[in-house]
Design brief:
The protein has about 100 residues and is an alpha+beta fold. It has one domain. It has two helices and five strands. The protein has a three-stranded antiparallel sheet with strand order 3-4-5, with no helix packed on it. The longest helix has 24 residues. It starts with a helix and ends with a helix. It comes from Acetivibrio thermocellus (strain ATCC 27405 / DSM 1237 / JCM 9322 / NBRC 103400 / NCIMB 10682 / NRRL B-4536 / VPI 7372).
Length: about 100
């Protein structure tokens, strides 16, 4: 089998793997106090405060009050970052 063929197969498997995430929760899904879910780009989080409610301050100056605890928000951000780094590794390792 040709090396080019192997490389092509790895690339196709990686693309199929990435496409399997299409439509799934890639950013973090949170819930506002009124019960409405929304998606937040975790790169915009500047800091999170735990008063009786959890308040997320973004780099754009917006503040969002959410139902989730600080620990839950942090865990969702970590899961999101793991997915991003997983995608990065898939594309970097395809050249090897």
């Amino acid at each position: 089998m040709c090396f080019c063929y192997k490389k092509r197969n790895i690339f196709i498997k990686n693309i199929n793997f990435l496409l399997s995430f299409r439509g799934k929760n890639i950013m973090i899904k949170l819930t506002k106090l009124n019960g409405k879910p929304f998606i937040l780009n975790s790169d915009l989080i500047e800091f999170i405060e735990q008063t009786p409610d959890t308040i997320i301050s973004t780099t754009t100056g917006k503040k969002v009050v959410v139902v989730e605890s600080v620990e839950e928000v942090v865990e969702k951000v970590l899961q999101y970052k793991r997915k991003i780094y997983l995608f990065k590794d898939v594309f970097i390792n395809q050249d090897r």
